[in-house]
Amino acid sequence: MTDFSLSSEQQMLKEMTRKFAETELMPGVIDRDQHSKFPKEQLKKMGELGLMGVMVPQQWGGAGFNTVSYVVAIEEIAAVELATSTIMSVNNSLVCQVLLDWGNDEQKNKYLKPLARGEKLGAYSLSEPQSGSDASNMKTFAKRDGKKYIINGTKNWVTSGQNSDLIICFCLTSPEDKSKTISCFIIEKDTPGLSIGKKEDKLGIRASDTCELYFDNCVISEDNRIGSEGQGFSIAMHALSGGRIGIAAQAVGLARSALEKSVFYSNERKQFGNSIGSFGAIKEKIADMATHLEAARLLVWKAAYLKDKGEKYNKESSMAKLFASKIAMDSAIDCVQIYGGYGYMQEYGVERLMRDAKITEIYEGTSEIQRLVISREIMECN
Length: 382
Fold this sequence. Notes:
Butyryl-CoA Dehydrogenase, subunit A, domain 3, Butyryl-Coa Dehydrogenase, subunit A, domain 1, 10 strands
């Protein structure tokens, strides 16, 4: 029988992260959303608390927790501000994890340690204008020249692209079978030949910057390659599978926020002489939101548990992301509906939940892609 209780260390992490989110993130969350302000100071403090390298062993500068602990922490951040949890998720799940799993000791010392400590911020760059869900259809090319690579091409949808210090970037290194000739590189932001595009004006997670990257004869050393040539596609897919657990935990945090705000308002708001929480229609919404939240959290915890056990978790991480992102969207819509006209106003903070929730159904693999992954895993096992 699986024990669903948190250890004392995990409970302390949860309480610490919740306190930080409420005291450091909550006061400026609406302002950062309205003006697309990057949470630079808040991220610095998160690094000092170990939240930017939760799963990285202490020897490499991290907090040394497992994946279950990580999803507990990221839920707390996402419950207050999904944008900041997105930055946290990319740095933890995609950047630090790639270096931890595939980087050599020199790369870990040079890059992983400062990333895990929050001294530097990382970005992950896989998508291109013509290759979103079809990641193997990339065109950015890294041409080998002796002990160097010359990179040319364009990347888009890069989270923290403007504010990061380094980028985990995937490029073609051979014109043959694309899925077998993609390689992974670490590229520092001040590398000549790399230029940063404008910040995208997004519907949600507006405090998190997203931009394009342009490579024009960008020269890097072969020492900046992670893993062997042609291993990049495997590295990218492995990272995304783990990253989906973090996205699912983000969605759980947002759904929890929608539920908590709905319960509070339902008890406070009075119509026809009674609190609206006494009305059957509102009770049904609250009951469904709470039930779906618990189910989503269990899916997330199961995927995290399997990852920590070293077992296969690809199907479970996709299930967690698919379901949690849907209930985040549904809960946010119901929350706005419960608030009525007030829910449509920025000052109440619930319309932001609805705008933010949508991205959880899109990034790191759309819901449609998750269904393909799940069905493929099931069919291959039978």
